[in-house]
Design goal:
Pfam families: RsgA_GTPase. This is Small ribosomal subunit biogenesis GTPase RsgA. By secondary structure, the protein is α/β, with parallel strands linked by helices. It is 34% helix and 20% strand. The longest helix is centred in the C-terminal third of the chain and has 27 residues, at 294-320. Strand 4 and strand 5 (71-74) form a beta hairpin. Bound molecules: guanosine-5'-triphosphate and zinc ion. The site of guanosine-5'-triphosphate has 21 residues, from helix 6.
Length: 346
C-alpha cells in the first residue's frame, strides 16, 4: 500500500537507488515551499518538515528524505525546470523538479504564436521534460490549422486541441499525462485556460469567470499553488514562477527544438557562418529553394541571442561566486530524456 502510494506520486527506481540501505529515512515529495519548511506528501499523508539549511535549493516536485520532522536529504531529480530570475536576470531559479511533461497551453486564436511555443519547447527540452502542446478554445475556431502549425515546429511536439470548459473532455484527453506516477506542469499566457484545465484535472470547481475585472490590474486568479493530485492519480504542478519561464543556459534545448536548422548549418561552408550573406550557406540555400521559412531562422537566431546574453551574465556571476552546482544534474536529466525518448516509462 505504502509503495503503491509513493509510486503514484512518482517514486521510481531513480530515487530508490539513492537511498542508503539500512538508514532510517522516509521519502516524501515536496508539494509547497515556505521559507524554512517544506510541505510534502509521503506514504502516511501530508507533512510539514523543517529544512535546516533553508529551502533555497529545493523546489516543488523534489523528492526528499526525512526523519519525521526534518529533511535529511534532497534526492537528485530526474528533471529540473529552471528560469531566469525575474528580478536579477543573471541568476537562474529552480522552479520545479521531476516534471515529466511540460504542457504548453495556447488557444486557437490570437494567442497562438510560434515564437512563444518554440521558447517553451526549448525550456522543456533543456529541462528534460516532454513537451505537450495543448490548444484550448477548440470550440471557438477550427483547431486543425493550429495543430498543423504546432506540429511543424519540432518533431518533439505532441499536440492536441480541446475545449477546456468541458471537464470530462479535459480529463479524457489529458489522463495519459496525469495518471499514476506522472507529473504534468502547465505554462502559457494569461487567459489561455490553464486554471480551467487544472480545475478539471483535480476535480476542483472552477474559480475562473468569463469576465475577470482583476486582470486589468495584473492580478491573476491563481497565486498560491504547488503540487496537487489529479483525479487520475498523478500529479499536477503549478507555481507562480512556472508561468513566466525565461530562457537561461538553454543552448542545447534550443538546438533540439531547431534541430532542422542545426543540421542544415552543419553543411554551411564556414563553420562560423552567420547564415546571412556568406557563400556556401546551406540555410540561405534552403530558404531560396523554398524548403525553409525565413521566419523560422529569425526566431531561432533571436532565441539563441536571448539565451546567450543571459547565459553570459550567469557565467560571470558563476565565476564570482562558486556556489553553483545545478548545471550538471540538469544536463544529465536532459541527456537521459534524449536517450529514452519523451514517452519512456520507468
Ligand atoms: N470557450 C472556451 N473558453 C475557455 C476555454 N478555456 C478557457 N476558457 C475561458 O477563458 C478564460 C480564462 O481561462 P483561465 O483558465 O482562467 O486561464 P489561465 O490560463 O489560468 O489564466 P491566468 O490564471 O491569468 O494565467 C475563462 O473565462 C475560461 O472560462 C475553452 O477551451 N473554450
Ligand atoms: Zn550558413
Amino acid at each position: 500500500m505504502t509503495d503503491l502510494l509513493l509510486s503514484s506520486l512518482g517514486w521510481t527506481p531513480h530515487f530508490a537507488s539513492q537511498v542508503e540501505p539500512g538508514k532510517a529515512c522516509t521519502p516524501a515529495r515536496i508539494t509547497g515551499v515556505e521559507r524554512s519548511h517544506i510541505l510534502a506528501l509521503g506514504a502516511t499523508g501530508p507533512l510539514r518538515l523543517l529544512v535546516p539549511q533553508g529551502t533555497g535549493s529545493t523546489a516543488v516536485g523534489d523528492w526528499v528524505l526525512h526523519d519525521g520532522t526534518t529533511v535529511t536529504r534532497r534526492l537528485a531529480p530526474r528533471t529540473e525546470l529552471v528560469r531566469r530570475n525575474a528580478g536579477d536576470t543573471s541568476r537562474r531559479q529552480l522552479i520545479a523538479s521531476n516534471v515529466d511533461t511540460l504542457g504548453v497551453v495556447t488557444s486557437c486564436n490570437a494567442d497562438f504564436n510560434p515564437a512563444r511555443l518554440e521558447r517553451y519547447l526549448s525550456v522543456a527540452a533543456q529541462a528534460g521534460c516532454a513537451p505537450l502542446v495543448i490548444l484550448t478554445k477548440a470550440d471557438k475556431a477550427d483547431p486543425e490549422p493550429y495543430l498543423e502549425q504546432a506540429r511543424a515546429l519540432s518533431p518533439l511536439v505532441v499536440a492536441l486541441a480541446l475545449n477546456a470548459k468541458h471537464p470530462e473532455e479535459v480529463v479524457e484527453r489529458l489522463t495519459p499525462w496525469v495518471s499514476e506516477g506522472r507529473t504534468l506542469a502547465l505554462v502559457g499566457s494569461s487567459g489561455v485556460g490553464k486554471t480551467t484545465i487544472q480545475n478539471a484535472l483535480t476535480g476542483v470547481q472552477a474559480a475562473t469567470q468569463d469576465i475577470r475585472a482583476d486582470d486589468a490590474k495584473g492580478r491573476h486568479t491563481t497565486t498560491a499553488r504547488a503540487l496537487r493530485r489529479t483525479l487520475a492519480g498523478g500529479c499536477l504542478i503549478d507555481t507562480p514562477g512556472i508561468r513566466e519561464l525565461g530562457l537561461v543556459d538553454a543552448a542545447e534545448g534550443v538546438g533540439e527544438v531547431f534541430s532542422d536548422l542545426v543540421d542544415l548549418a552543419s553543411n554551411c561552408r564556414f563553420r562560423d557562418c552567420s547564415h546571412d550573406r556568406e557563400p556556401g550557406c546551406a540555410i540561405q540555400a534552403a530558404i531560396a529553394a523554398g524548403t525553409l521559412d525565413p521566419d523560422r531562422l529569425r526566431r531561432f537566431q533571436k532565441l539563441e541571442r536571448e539565451d546567450r546574453a543571459h547565459t553570459e551574465a550567469l557565467h560571470q556571476r558563476h565565476a564570482r561566486d562558486r556556489t553553483f552546482g545545478k548545471a550538471t544534474s540538469q544536463g544529465a536529466a536532459r541527456a537521459k530524456w534524449k536517450r529514452r525518448g519523451p514517452e519512456a516509462e520507468e
